[in-house]
Amino acid sequence: xxxxxxxxxxxxxxxxxxxxxxxxxxxxxxxxxxxxxxxxxxxxxxxxxxxxxxxxxxxxxxxxxxxxxxxxxxxxxxxxxxxxxxxxxxxxxxxxxxxxxxxxxxxxxxxxxxxxxxxxxxxxxxxxxxxxxxxxxxxxxxxxxxxxxxxxxxxxxxxxxxxxxxxxxxxxxxxxxxxxxxxxxxxxxxxxxxxxxxxxxxxxxxxxxxxxxxxxxxxxxxxxxxxxxxxxxxxxxxxxxxxxxxxxxxxxxxxxxxxxxxxxxxxxxxxxxxxxxxxxxxxxxxxxxxxxxxxxxxxxxxxxxxxxxxxxxxxxxxxxxxxxxxxxxxxxxxxxxxxxxxxxxxxxxxxxxxxxxxxxxxxxxxxxxxxxxxxxxxxxxxxxxxxxxxxxxxxxxxxxxxxxxxxxxxxxxxxxxxxxxxxxxxxxxxxxxxxxxxxxxxxxxxxxxxxxxxxxxxxxxxxxxxxxxxxxxxxxxxxxxxxxxxxxxxxxxxxxxxxxxxxxxxxxxxxxxxxxxxxxxxxxxxxxxxxxxxxxxxxxxxxxxxxxxxxxxxxxxxxxxxxxxxxxxxxxxxxxxxxxxxx
Amino acid sequence: xxxxxxxxxxxxxxxxxxxxxxxxxxxxxxxxxxxxxxxxxxxxxxxxxxxxxxxxxxxxxxxxxxxxxxxxxxxxxxxxxxxxxxxxxxxxxxxxxxxxxxxxxxxxxxxxxxxxxxxxxxxxxxxxxxxxxxxxxxxxxxxxxxxxxxxxxxxxxxxxxxxxxxxxxxxxxxxxxxxxxxxxxxxxxxxxxxxxxxxxxxxxxxxxxxxxxxxxxxxxxxxxxxxxxxxxxxxxxxxxxxxxxxxxxxxxxxxxxxxxxxxxxxxxxxxxxxxxxxxxxxxxxxxxxxxxxxxxxxxxxxxxxxxxxxxxxxxxxxxxxxxxxxxxxxxxxxxxxxxxxxxxxxxxxxxxxxxxxxxxxxxxxxxx
Lengths: 583, 368
Prior knowledge:
The complex is a heterodimer of chains A (583) and B (368).
Chain A lengths: L1 H7 L7 H10 L2 H28 L14 H7 L2 H34 L5 H9 L6 H12 L5 H10 L11 H25 L4 H8 L4 H30 L2 H10 L4 H10 L6 H26 L22 H28 L15 H7 L2 H34 L5 H9 L6 H12 L10 H26 L2 H9 L4 H30 L15 H10 L3 H24 L11
Chain B lengths: L4 H4 L19 H7 L7 H20 L1 E5 L4 H13 L4 E5 L3 H13 L7 E4 L1 H9 L3 E2 L21 E13 L24 E4 L6 H11 L4 H10 L3 E3 L2 H10 L4 E6 H10 L5 E4 L5 E11 L5 H12 L1 H9 L3 E2 L18 E2 L5 H4 L1 H13 L2
Parallel strand pairs in B: 1-2, 6-7, 6-8, 10-12
Antiparallel strand pairs in B: 3-10, 4-10, 5-8, 5-9, 5-10, 5-11
Helix pairs in contact in B: 3-11, 4-12, 7-8
């Protein structure tokens, strides 16, 4: 269209300088980047836009109604909104800072030190990420509820009735559970970035006489800033909208956070007030915008080139005897965050009644139940197929997006950056309503098919996928790309032949992480799943509501095994091997 | 739905599922004479002729799409129905009642009609009726249903009843200590020891509190005294039940009798017990309705009729629901409602007032 515009334009209508610029703008690269921007913008803004429009109407999203500001008035004239928002931001902030410190420490231990069995530790520290958050919360309740919690009971038995009791139903309990899961998440996001560092800057610092600590604080950490900040920001945003811990632990503790308030709009009103939920979600978008702005300020004008054309391995720091302490620390983390809660789930899966630990109630019937459920098998097939294919697709897409945002001067790159954060600023259940309302009218028939599940997965995966890739893209030295250009490579060729191979380990690791998030996504897809398009997470929810918490545990164990086997195979075959894609 | 909260009470989390009973075969001869004949009453024989015609028409449609709870009773109902009426497949749908209602209304706006039958608690049922989503259908079987359960608007078919008593952990509450009445819960020894599901929004505890608050001599004053006992309030009944079993608290409210039957089915030695307090027991009526523009209307009518038939009600009662049809026994003491004083919610009125009730419970239980 712009082509015809240029062709028809008379010089006096379109000044000479303009024509030059238009011609220059219409390079294949710009057209490709424009296409990607439009595609991502559509994926994100079509459902979210439907919601936003709905929040100004008197009807549920997707239905006809008249214009109203009522949702915004009731959301933002209530002082409770601001009080709860403050609690939420503080809670999310504290847990994100703690989790980031832990995650970076563990990342440095497994990547940069001579701690024994590092490859195994890397796997173990990531395990909590593979447990669905709702089950992790239930596991911790069984461990730390004040009277019957297994750890509290054990403490009483060991130290007598006067032993202190840790009450999970408290602000501290909420931070504890949120922090443990976030640590594994942030760890997974930063560990690859830590590994793909070129050590030459550190070498230079060492050569200038700096100590290990000085190098870590003044060279290594600043260089890792984009990856760490990106991961921490994602983790923070997630805490603003994730509902498992607020609902299961916060409600009894009477600590109310934003997800409680959003769910109140959906749960307490009939019909569910998705307009109010969306208008509340707008604050989360604003917070996200502020965070992105701050992040850009912090990183502006700095160089993060870490992967250069020269092949250095990161320098391994010799810890001496301290390496056994580092090892013990990692194992302790694994035992506390994975073994303890998973042991509750495993025991539940082998028991007739969850919570009644008694050898007489041991049974395999929960596994028999799930393995004889047709729906479970269809859910498994759909989750593996749709989740697997869309995870790969989403990562390729996100690697383009990250490339455009990080490595080009494309005019729309800031817009693209912004849009790529949005899907996580609205709680899953609200996004699901937006997807339903938007795609039921979509001219191409996707409603009721697995394609819509795929679209939902890709849309929901964009924030994480882009962050996973942009850390890597920032680290790849421009000289590699420039030398490809100098040798006559086109933009697409450069991407395919130079950047993609360099980023491949991160891309595949990212696809695995996305797959895990897809396999447990529930609220965003529960409305889109139906006969023939079941998903494992939806089947799990079905068991939960049917009062079969034991079958839920059995299914969670199955999902855990699938995810861990997938991860182990990927590592074994070298797909994700350290720096495998480097020069 | 043994699980109470869900479909039951205005739904907190319903789920649906789709297991298709498709492949079941039983000699089609079994179908012929059976239909409604099991009813045996004069009214039923008249219905039987209609029933045969309905079955013929239903067979041509071949399928029913419904939101059905994934409970043992509904699994058995689907299996029994598809054996009784071969050639009709039941496709179950997944989702909580309120979500399915929202989904179906959104679909209708886009002219997509997938469901034949919608079923849920009274709040969703009333909402769907008011939204014009339901086609009036009065099953001939209604003649045999307890009159107080029949919908005055002639749109919603009653399905079964959920009752909410007091649930205790028998290891922590010996028989001589058991609360026998709602007032017994106000004993200081239970302070801080009663767990309940969040009464706001909808769910078993909402049903319970509305029921108790409406009937003398309990009333709203009783609810305030109950709140002064500082109950432990959680969100998910099924998760709280695991804590009742593990001994975290001795008493729990908002568990339907059917949910307890499910627990006992899984494990007969589970130390929980349902007590029916002397003042009466709050109840909620589950309903089902024929969808407007249903793709398989005859099959849907056949299914709705069968669920109210002697056989259908026996099947639902067997796995833990309280039947609505006259003279249908239930094998479980917990779910027996014959001779029990039931505390009803006003049909229509109370469901319309739920937002006000939510605000009231919020003030009483959370704003202290």
